[in-house]
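Let's practice the habit of predicting before peeking. Look at the sequence and jot down your guess about where helices and strands might fall. Then scroll down.
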Amino acid sequence: MRLVTFTRPGKLQQEVGALGAGDAVLDLAAAEPLLRGQSMLDLAAAPALLDKARAAQAKAPVVQGAKLCAPIPRPPKNVFCVGKNYHEHAKEFAGSGFDGGAKDVVPPFPVVFSKPHTSIIAHGEKILGHLDTTGGLDYEGELGVVIGQGGRGIGKDAALKHVFGYTIINDVTARHLQKRHSQWILGKGLDTFCPMGPAVLTADEVPDPTKLVLTTWVNGEQRQHAPVADLIFDIPTLIEAISAVITLEPGDVIATGTPAGVGIGFNPPVFLKSGDVVKIAITGIGELENAVA
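Done guessing? Here is the structure:
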């Protein structure tokens, strides 16, 4: 099931729906009144509500003129992000000069940073590239993991039972700011620098997330293509590492890292410019597309 957050024409209230045939937005609350007023966070926290949504999908009508929002517009915390988590990307980052002289090409432990909720935008919304005045705008296609059942001290063997679903994230980055400040939040947390969507694919549809494949295009040119199986630190390892010290809550989002093929991997680097369009696809989830304003 692909769940979405949407608004109706002329309305500001966000609602939860599902994507049907042709990516039409389905009105789950019209088919199941218990879902009226519920958010994606509510569904992540309550398996019974998710069951209601699943049952409602078959009889839910199409919402005419629906506008997609980010599926989780405001997670409980900043979006957890993981750096250098594909072998080939770790190598290209180490050779780019933007790694700040890090000692290890492949990190011995997950590199975790965050992006604030103010950076989150929806499929189709514009990336405000002008906020990066340093001219180093880059893209990073990533699989996002959405937490369902929360907890602290979650072991790897139980980690996937705590996953509500999966989405797509573009970890847009101001490379020169990232390098300048060493700590990455100022280079990666700018407003609009976390496109997310278009949907959350529920975990029951993904028995083995390592089978998912990520592909990124810029202006129609394929730049990234890799299976999630290539992660250095897999999803259970990331959940275990983060939850060892930080309580995970329903709706928390973990961006798992990007494969090789980002702009700084070129010689010379190829950064995004006004009018460029970045499209990211992951098996079963759909496509996340955003243009640079």
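How did you do? The longest strand covers residues 194-202.
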